[in-house]
TrEMBL record:
Record protein name field: Uncharacterized protein
Superkingdom classification of source: Eukaryota
Database matches in InterPro entries: Probable_transposase_24
Source organism (scientific name): Colocasia esculenta (Wild taro)
Length: 114
């Protein structure tokens, strides 16, 4: 609790710490830890403690070029064999990008407005 983020007011940080330390939150946390251990292949969002920067570096090495936003998203969000919310979000993003940019014109790697 003594090492909160510098961008957050101290009283907000303390109230969050107190909330995280009690009943329902701890029960959900324990269940999530149990599920991550029981189903390690399903836990692919960040592959445990691997950061996006590390995923990006590994992908850069594999592809021998900088990965696109889409490639990095696929690596960190998809669960094999399942239609997840992130896959649906990505499909919506792809449709929006196709509607916004004509084929053959410049299309940015990431359009935050899309």
């Amino acid at each position: 609790m003594d090492y909160g983020p510098v961008w957050m007011r101290r009283d907000y940080w303390e109230s969050l710490c107190h909330r995280w330390a009690i009943g329902p939150w701890q029960e959900r946390s324990h269940a999530a830890k149990h599920n991550r251990v029981a189903h390690p292949k399903k836990n692919v969002h960040t592959s445990g403690l691997v950061s996006y920067a590390t995923h990006s570096q590994k992908l850069r090495h594999e592809l021998e070029r900088a990965p696109t936003f889409r490639e990095l998203f696929d690596r960190t969000h998809k669960q094999k064999g399942r239609m997840t919310m992130s896959v649906r979000v990505l499909e919506t993003y792809d449709r929006t990008m196709a509607d916004r940019y004509e084929e053959g014109t410049f299309q940015p790697d990431l359009d935050p407005e899309a």
